[in-house]
Amino acid sequence: MKIAIIAGSGNFPIQIAKENPNALVLCVEGHSFPDLFKNNSEVISLNNPQSWISVLKKNKITHIVMVGKINRISNENLLIYEQTHKLIKNTFSLGDNSSLNLIEKFFNENGFEILPIKSILKDCFFSIGFYQEVLFSKKLKDFVIQNAKFGSNFLNKMSEFDIGQSVVVNDSIVYAIEALEGTDEMLMRAGKLYNNYYQNNDFGPVLIKLPKLNQNFKMDLPVIGLETIRKCNDLGFSSIVLSSTGTLIADIKNVKNYIKKNKFCIYAI
C-alpha cells in the first residue's frame, strides 16, 4: 500500500504527514504548500482533477487520504479557468457530502481507494463523557448535556439537507448554523449575538460539531483543533460537544493541555 495525502489548508495535514513520513503529499494550490512538509510533495490544481490522476499514477499510489479545508472554486475563478474539469463543475449544485461522494467515485473509477483519516492517525478522538470531569460543576454538566441532546437532534434533522456539521445553541435557542462560510465565521456570528444580545443564563453557548447522518466517514469528518477551542473560549462559550467516534481532534496533546489549563469543557457523545 502506497499512500498519498491530498492536503488542504490548516495544521491537520501537517500533523498527519509527520506521522506518515513515507506518504506523498499533494498540496492543493492556494491551500497548502510543499515547504510545510518534509514528505515528498507536489502541487495540484483544484481545477484539473485529471492532473491528480497523472501524479498519483506516476508515483505508483494505491490509497488516498483527504485532509484539511478545501474551499469551493469561486465564480470568478471559474470564469478564469474555462477548462475546469466537469467533476468540479458537477459539485457546484451539491452539498458537501454529496460532492465528496462524487469525488470518491472519481478516484475509485481511476483505481484508487480512499482511506479514512483515522486509519493513519494514532490518537484522534475523545472518549465518551466529559474530559477532566472533576473540573466542572454538576450544574454546568447538566446544562451541557441538555444542550447536547437538543443540538444533536437538530443536526440530525438537518442532515437530509446536507448542510454543515456544526450548530451553536444555548437553552434551545439556535445562535448559528454552519453553512458555506465554515466553522470560524459561524463562531464569530454566534459570539457576536451572544455578547451583544442574548446572555440569558449562567453559561455561554455550546458549540456542537458532529458528523451528519449518512456521512462519508472516509472524506469529511468534522475536525476540532486548538484554534477552534481557543476561539470558543475567547468568545465566552461554555463548552463544545463532539462525537467520540466521528469528530476528529487535531493535535490532541496540545488540545488536552489547553483544556486542563483553561478549564474549558469538552463533552463527547
Task: Quickly describe the structure.
This protein is an alpha/beta fold and 269 residues long. The protein has helices at 12-19, 49-58, 75-80, 86-90, 96-109, 138-158, 183-196, 226-234, 252-262, and strands at residues 3-7, 24-28, 41-44, 63-67, 113-114, 129-130, 166-170, 173-177, 206-209, 223-224, 239-242, 248-249, 265-268.
Walk me through this protein's architecture:
The chain has 269 residues and is of the alpha/beta class. It has two domains: 3-119, Rossmann fold (3-Layer(aba) Sandwich); 129-268, LpxI C-terminal catalytic domain (Cytidine Deaminase, domain 2, 3-Layer(aba) Sandwich), CATH 3.40.140.80. It is built from nine helices and 13 strands. The chain has helices at 12-19, 49-58, 75-80, 86-90, 96-109, 138-158, 183-196, 226-234, 252-262; strands at 3-7, 24-28, 41-44, 63-67, 113-114, 129-130, 166-170, 173-177, 206-209, 223-224, 239-242, 248-249, 265-268. β1 (3-7), α1 (12-19) and β2 form a beta-alpha-beta unit. The chain is globular, with a radius of gyration of 19 Å. The two termini are 33 Å apart.
